[in-house]
Amino acid sequence: xxxxxxxxxxxxxxxxxxxxxxxxxxxxxxxxxxxxxxxxxxxxxxxxxxxxxxxxxxxxxxxxxxxxxxxxxxxxxxxxxxxxxxxxxxxxxxxxxxxxxxxxxxxxxxxxxxxxxxxxxxxxxxxxxxxxxxxxxxxxxxxxxxxxxxxxxxxxxxxxxxxxxxxxxxxxxxxxxxxxxx
Length: 182
Fold this sequence. Notes:
Elements: H1 6-17, H2 21-29, H3 32-43, H4 46-62, H5 73-90, H6 92-96, H7 117-125, H8 128-139, H9 144-151, H10 155-181
């Protein structure tokens, strides 16, 4: 899924680790679209997704030295975005707010989110770890290996999370398919 070839990406990572902000911005630029899609899908509120992205970008810059040699930037950054979204969801106001099952159509571009209100609701009810894995793989189109890297788990762990989520989602997928085909 990484848009840059490995040698040039590794050179940018090395320069960014040395404090080159331009190199970091180039790395970040290749990941922001996917990361924004993930943040919005996890939080479903544009301003919260923007806040999560800004904080994730700042944290990634501060902790860039933690990126292992030879690792790709995007899965590492996507993991930071997912964790930031989890922190926002754990925040006090998320725990006391009553969120509607459906989000007003004006806040979602159906072509960039998921089709079918039933499917969106079902995904929102998944445990966060399963939701993040499903959204990274299917919504952001990340390969399983990159999903695993983003979530800091093994490839088999990522597959298990996705399979468990898909089992929970089957009824909603069937409803959505029936509406589309009906």
